[in-house]
Task: structure prediction
Amino acid sequence: MAAIAAERPERLSSEEKERLMALGDDLATAWSHPNATAETRKRVLRSAVKEIVVTLAEERIELLLHWQGGDHARLSVPRNRAGQHRFGTTGEVGDLIRCLARQLSDGAIAAMLNRLGKKTGRGNAWTQVRVRSFRNGHGIAVHRPGEMAERGEPTLKETAERLGVGTMTVLRLIGDGTIGASQACKGAPWAIPEDQLGPLKDSCFGEVRPRTADPNQEELDTQ
Result:
């Protein structure tokens, strides 16, 4: 009994009691106090919260907090999907990888992202391994050679060969709207739908024609 009595803390003075009561009215200060440890915060939670009921929804986590005083409060937070974490890649980069995966290999995607100045969720440069890890974590299939042709999307070079022109001519046709095509980002392969080439196949692109005579063009006599 003497040992137990010796271990008992001394009774609080009126000043100490007032300070504790003040902290009770300002929980944020007590919680963020530099001397507050993890164990201290757990004791604060146990003294304030009776139980927390968690319900998992499709996109969110619903929490019902029962306070010791009898009141309750509801809290809803987003639910991470598979592959998500606090270092997650931005949605913009994720959408870009999804699109590029249908056109390029993992190594080529990494090079493209680095040229654009895009970083991973941890601020690192992209590598083939990191792109593969992102794909696997988000259920994105790996690119297969010939995939674009199967979808009816000839490459820029294939389009030029079919029309019998150079690739710069095809780019000019895309620029002026003659051929409707899209690009995932600057420098990415052009997605040229097959049906855009039908009306152009019978045109005179493949014919080599002399340029119209210019009356202002002078001739040079070398005789």
About this structure: Strands lie at 49-56, 60-67, 72-78, 182-183, 190-191.
